[in-house]
Amino acid sequence: MLGDGKSVVLSFDDGPAPLAALESILQTLEENEIKAEFYVVGEEVRRYPGAASMIVAQGHDIQNHSWSHANLATETKPNVRWELEQTQDIIRESTGVTPTKIRPPYGSGGFRGNLDPELVEVAEQLSLTIVTWDIDTEDWKAPQGLGPRKISNIESQFAQQPRRQLFNVLMHVQAGTARDLPSFISQLREWGFAIAEP
Q1: 8 A C-beta contact, residue 121 and residue 77
Q2: Where is the NodB homology domain (predicted)?
């Protein structure tokens, strides 16, 4: 079986808005007793501090996804620092939690073998670990969500990494994903995956 003895961590980028999608995702996670990680955009946290607090209050990890969803690999070092520092500050102010990880938007400058030196330096100074993902659900592509076409692509991504024991699965805070999340969780369990805490 695809997931025999293997685990997944569920992660969501680009929150905390839209709020209806976030609330639906949080409810599904709670019903399934799953803890996930949320990589949030600083300027959205500034607009919706209560939504960021809700993520933390429900026991999920909240992490840094830059201030403005910038491509950090093409930014100057001062801009990279500003993007990450501002986001650290607003998350700390809104939730009382200091992020320990940065997932660069688009994964730019964050993948092994392709690390952006300025991002690496700034992340180190802010005690942030740079993370990416193992499985890209492409839930943001039309048609949005985690429908049958996406599922077969996800299945082949798992199959292409037979030695990996733990997979980080990338999704986004958006309506289509919120709608399809319950059936996606069932599918992961059907494949034999355990769902791990971040």
Answers
A1: yes
A2: 6-196
CA separation for the pair 76, 185 (Å, rounded): 39
Residue 77, pLDDT score: 97
pTM value is 0.97
CB of 103 closer than 8 Å to CB of 131 = yes
Q: How far is CA 184 from CA 2, 54, 101, 144, 152, in A?
A: 15, 23, 25, 14, 12
pLDDT score, position 109: 97
Domain ranges within the chain, ordered by starting residue: 7-195
Helix boundaries (H) for 40-174: 42-47, 49-57, 77-95, 117-125, 148-159
pLDDT of residue 15: 95
The CATH number assigned to the domain with range 7-195 reads 3.20.20.370
3-class secondary structure, 34? coil
SS3 of 81, please?
helix
Yes or no: say if 10 and 171 are a contact pair by the CB < 8 Å rule: yes
Torsion of CA 189, 191, 197, 198, to 10 degrees: -140
User: Quick one: pLDDT band at residue 183, thresholds 50, 70, 90?
Assistant: very high
The pLDDT tens digits for 129-166 are 999 999 999 999 999 999 999 999 999 999 999 999 99
The CA distance from 86 to 8, in Å, is 30
